[in-house]
């Protein structure tokens, strides 16, 4: 693969690690608000992002390249509401989708078929991620903070867990 593509993949790997950092900050906000289920949702999300980064780490090595680990920017730690947390998460995922489209454009331009194939998994994953956030935002807009429905959602998210086998 061309250096340009290897660098773009490496940047994406680091962006996935940064995404884990972003979701960890969101989890911390929910934990501080005693919303343990919502916090669990974001802790699982952070694990998924680290897993995504490691997928690219492995691919770079498989293709005779190396992963270069960069420093992470400080994520936002201040939120007004759980709804705002999810809205920012949704925005983050849409930004990530665009990054994968740009990466795919580079790979297609280079006719780097192994990478084009590799990126398909992420593009499918982005469809799921965006739908997940969008669906939760719709629910949160329908219910009041402090209502039973809100705490039921918190209880539902307490059961979310990370399953690497399902992600593979
Ligand atoms: Fe790694 Fe949320 O996409």
3D structure, described in words:
It is a single chain. The chain is mainly α and 168 residues long. It has one domain: Ferritin (Up-down Bundle). Helix content is 77%, strand content 0%. The protein has helices at 3-32, 36-62, 82-109, 113-142, 148-157, 164-167. The mean pLDDT is 96. Bound molecules: MU-OXO-diiron. MU-OXO-diiron (FEO) binds at residues 16, 19, 49, 52, 93, 96, 129.
* Class by SSE composition: mainly alpha
Number of domains: 1
Highest CATH level, the class: Mainly Alpha
CATH architectural group: Up-down Bundle
Output the CATH topology.
Ferritin
Q: Report helical residue fraction.
A: over 70%
Overall mean pLDDT stands at 96
Percent of residues in β-strands? under 5%
Name every ligand kind in the structure: MU-OXO-diiron
Gross morphology: elongated
Q: Could you state the order of secondary-structure elements as H and E?
A: HHHHHH
Total number of helices:
6
Count of extended strands: 0
**Terminal Cα span:** 23 Å
Q: Sheet bearing the most strands, described?
A: none
Write a brief caption for the model:
This protein is an all-alpha fold and 168 residues long. It has a single domain, classed as Ferritin, core subunit, four-helix bundle (Ferritin, Up-down Bundle). The protein is built from six helices and no strands.
Give a topology summary.
Elements (H helix, E strand, L loop, with lengths): L2 H30 L3 H27 L19 H28 L3 H30 L5 H10 L6 H4 L1
Helix pairs in contact: 1-2, 1-3, 2-5, 3-4
Bound molecules: MU-OXO-diiron.
MU-OXO-diiron binds next to helix 1, helix 2 and helix 3.
């Amino acid at each position: 693969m061309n250096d340009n593509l290897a660098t773009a993949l490496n940047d994406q790997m680091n962006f996935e690690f940064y995404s884990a950092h972003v979701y960890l900050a969101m989890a911390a906000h929910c934990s501080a608000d005693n919303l343990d289920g919502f916090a669990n949702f974001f802790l699982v999300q952070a694990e998924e992002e680290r897993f995504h980064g490691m997928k690219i780490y492995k691919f770079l090595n498989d293709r005779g390249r190396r992963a270069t680990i960069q420093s992470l920017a400080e994520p936002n730690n201040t939120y007004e509401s759980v709804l705002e947390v999810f809205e920012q998460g949704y925005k983050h995922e849409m930004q990530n989708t665009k990054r994968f489209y740009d990466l795919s454009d580079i790979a297609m331009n280079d006719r780097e078929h192994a990478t084009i194939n590799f990126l398909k998994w992420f593009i499918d994953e982005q469809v799921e991620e965006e739908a997940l956030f969008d669906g939760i935002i719709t629910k949160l807009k329908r219910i009041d903070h402090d209502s039973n429905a809100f705490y039921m959602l918190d209880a539902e998210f307490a059961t979310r867990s990370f399953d690497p086998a399902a992600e593979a």
